[in-house]
């Protein structure tokens, strides 16, 4: 028996628009972000996808993306579990700073290392490896069992929490995963084999 796992990065947030480090700061979607979520949902609807359960983070930009998708699919009341294990990477002291200002303060190279290395933490924050350390157990214990029972599971989360999840699903290295770009609002549909390996992957862009 194989199930389906659908990953969606939240639509554009207010701080994405302003080029700010967001992390665990709880900012809302922009109008464009809501449209991105709706567009992604329409692509799922066109494929006839419906969900058995949904998971999202403790942050409203992911929660609202999740709800928009379920509303479009006519599944507004679906069981939805919120957990901070799926939160964006915590950018620590960088949170709330404009990325250009951060480059001016610490230098282009240092900010690039913080943003795009696998195991280097920004001041007071998490590396992508740290983010994975909370995402992976949560996936294994709480989400994967639904998929392996043949269910269809929605995960609406963030760029880095989803990178960590994709790293585990696809067996990517730290060097490979930091180069992966995830578009906002675009569903990634995985079909899993009974042994939890990936049977197929379809990006609905």
TrEMBL record:
<dbReference type="Pfam" id="PF00300">
    <property type="entry name" value="His_Phos_1"/>
</dbReference>
<feature type="binding site">
    <location>
        <begin position="9"/>
        <end position="16"/>
    </location>
    <ligand>
        <name>substrate</name>
    </ligand>
</feature>
<protein>
    <recommendedName>
        <fullName>2,3-bisphosphoglycerate-dependent phosphoglycerate mutase</fullName>
        <ecNumber>5.4.2.11</ecNumber>
    </recommendedName>
</protein>
<comment type="subunit">
    <text>Homodimer.</text>
</comment>
<feature type="binding site">
    <location>
        <begin position="22"/>
        <end position="23"/>
    </location>
    <ligand>
        <name>substrate</name>
    </ligand>
</feature>
<dbReference type="InterPro" id="IPR029033">
    <property type="entry name" value="His_PPase_superfam"/>
</dbReference>
<feature type="active site" description="Proton donor/acceptor">
    <location>
        <position position="88"/>
    </location>
</feature>
<feature type="binding site">
    <location>
        <begin position="88"/>
        <end position="91"/>
    </location>
    <ligand>
        <name>substrate</name>
    </ligand>
</feature>
<feature type="binding site">
    <location>
        <begin position="115"/>
        <end position="116"/>
    </location>
    <ligand>
        <name>substrate</name>
    </ligand>
</feature>
<feature type="binding site">
    <location>
        <begin position="159"/>
        <end position="160"/>
    </location>
    <ligand>
        <name>substrate</name>
    </ligand>
</feature>
<dbReference type="InterPro" id="IPR005952">
    <property type="entry name" value="Phosphogly_mut1"/>
</dbReference>
<comment type="function">
    <text>Catalyzes the interconversion of 2-phosphoglycerate and 3-phosphoglycerate.</text>
</comment>
<feature type="active site" description="Tele-phosphohistidine intermediate">
    <location>
        <position position="10"/>
    </location>
</feature>
<comment type="pathway">
    <text>Carbohydrate degradation; glycolysis; pyruvate from D-glyceraldehyde 3-phosphate: step 3/5.</text>
</comment>
<feature type="site" description="Transition state stabilizer">
    <location>
        <position position="158"/>
    </location>
</feature>
<dbReference type="InterPro" id="IPR013078">
    <property type="entry name" value="His_Pase_superF_clade-1"/>
</dbReference>
<dbReference type="InterPro" id="IPR001345">
    <property type="entry name" value="PG/BPGM_mutase_AS"/>
</dbReference>
<keyword id="KW-0324">Glycolysis</keyword>
<dbReference type="GO" id="GO:0004619">
    <property type="term" value="F:phosphoglycerate mutase activity"/>
</dbReference>
<keyword id="KW-0413">Isomerase</keyword>
<feature type="binding site">
    <location>
        <position position="61"/>
    </location>
    <ligand>
        <name>substrate</name>
    </ligand>
</feature>
<feature type="binding site">
    <location>
        <position position="99"/>
    </location>
    <ligand>
        <name>substrate</name>
    </ligand>
</feature>
<comment type="similarity">
    <text>Belongs to the phosphoglycerate mutase family. BPG-dependent PGAM subfamily.</text>
</comment>
<keyword id="KW-0312">Gluconeogenesis</keyword>
């Amino acid at each position: 028996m194989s199930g389906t796992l659908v990953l969606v990065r939240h639509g554009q947030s207010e701080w994405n628009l302003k080029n700010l480090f967001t992390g665990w700061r709880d900012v809302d979607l922009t109008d464009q972000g809501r449209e991105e979520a709706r567009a992604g949902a329409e692509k799922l609807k066109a494929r006839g996808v419906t969900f058995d359960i949904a998971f999202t983070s403790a942050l409203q930009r992911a929660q609202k993306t999740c709800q928009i998708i379920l509303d479009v699919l006519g599944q507004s009341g679906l069981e939805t579990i919120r957990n901070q294990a799926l939160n964006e990477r915590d950018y620590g002291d960088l949170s709330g700073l404009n990325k250009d200002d951060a480059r001016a303060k610490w230098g282009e190279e240092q900010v690039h290392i913080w943003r795009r290395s696998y195991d280097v933490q920004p001041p007071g924050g998490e590396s992508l490896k740290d983010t994975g350390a909370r995402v992976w157990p949560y996936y294994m214990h709480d989400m994967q069992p639904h998929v392996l029972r043949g269910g269809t599971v929605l995960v609406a989360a963030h760029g880095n929490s989803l990178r960590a999840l994709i790293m585990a699903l696809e067996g990517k290295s730290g060097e490979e995963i930091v180069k992966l770009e995830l578009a906002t609002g675009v569903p990634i549909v995985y079909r899993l084999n009974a042994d939890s390996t990936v049977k197929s992957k379809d990006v609905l862009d």
